[in-house]
Design goal:
39% of the residues lie in helices and 19% in strands. It is built from 11 helices and 10 strands. A hairpin with an 8-residue loop joins strand 1 and strand 2. The radius of gyration is 18 Å and the shape is globular. The structure holds pyridoxal-5'-phosphate (PLP). Pyridoxal-5'-phosphate binds next to helix 1, strand 7 and helix 7.
């Protein structure tokens, strides 16, 4: 996996009270989501080092992790199987993209999907197939994400990003020094789960988790968020999506007027731009 440093770009946007920096991890790869790429970098390196020729993982029908894993496996010439949760139609552009990369997709019912170890054991031999957790979480993921901090050469800044499982937040917090303030904008209502993860890695004191901008839950949108996304894209030329980066940048407008008013701000673009091409968004736009 080729991983060069993504640029740190200064932007001015009329909805923001001041210029901010954007860490363009969306530019790490044309298709694959930035933070999923970071999370996979060392994870797949381990699989490769151990001479595995097959990787299996899990995802939803609109999962950035699914597409990222499929692509990484194609590059490394490793066979890839992905369990897809639920009865969602198997023709989303995410599914199709993973299939283009040659992944085998196995659709399973929600009830079966819950016990991932059992599901894995029923299909594969762990001596031959390397298992990657849903969303790509795990120690190697944290190591990959932590490298983002070393690539930002600013003395003191607030680093703002969209947070779902909290893995990215933990990876950033683990690598951050006392002059980097992590601001994680939750894109779903899972405060308890995220805080438990922060506690598990003893980084709870280093992360400001913002729970007020979930807009009703995962992938839920409002007319104002949709308008913001289209306006931001047209004015900056930077693609965002309403599920992750768009939601977090929408929140950033308000944070910039309050607690981040006097801070140097870096927004981490975690990628995920395939999301904007979802029919749900395109039909409303
Ligand atoms: C998965 C994802 C996130 C959330 O990352 P977590 O580590 O689960 O918190 C943020 N942005 C994008 C684009 C993603 O695909």
């Amino acid at each position: 996996m080729n991983l060069f440093q993504s640029p740190l770009q200064k932007i001015e946007y009329s909805g923001f009270d001041k210029p901010i920096y954007i860490k363009r991890d969306d530019m790490l790869h044309p298709i694959v989501s930035g933070n999923k790429w970071r999370k996979l970098k060392y994870t797949v390196a381990v699989a490769q080092k151990l001479n595995y020729t097959h990787i299996a993982t899990f995802g939803g029908a609109y999962s950035n992790h699914m597409v990222a894993t499929a692509c990484a496996c194609a590059e490394l010439k490793i066979r890839c199987s992905i369990f897809i949760r639920g009865q969602e139609p198997m023709d989303s552009h995410y599914i199709k993209t993973a299939q283009l990369y040659g992944a085998t997709l196995i659709q399973v019912e929600r009830s079966q999907y819950a016990d991932k170890n059992k599901l894995f054991a029923a299909h594969f031999d762990s001596n031959q197939t390397y298992f990657i957790a849903e969303g790509g979480k795990g120690l190697h993921a944290l190591q990959g994400v932590g490298e983002i901090i070393n690539e930002i050469n600013l003395a003191k800044y607030a680093l703002v990003h969209a947070s779902a499982t909290g893995t990215t937040a933990v990876g950033l917090a683990g690598a951050a020094n006392k002059n980097t303030f992590i601001h994680s904008v939750a894109v779903l209502k899972n405060q308890k789960e995220q805080e438990e993860l922060f506690n598990e890695y003893s980084v709870q004191g280093k992360i400001n988790l913002h729970m007020d901008y979930t807009l009703g839950g995962y992938a839920k949108t409002t007319a104002a968020l949709m308008k913001f996304c289209t306006h931001f894209i047209a004015e900056t030329g930077i693609m965002i999506d309403p599920v992750y980066t768009g939601k977090a940048l929408f929140a950033l407008q308000i944070l910039l007027q309050n607690e981040l008013k006097d801070k140097e701000v870096v927004f981490l673009h975690t990628g995920g731009t395939l999301g904007i091409f979802s029919p749900a968004f395109m039909q409303k736009f």
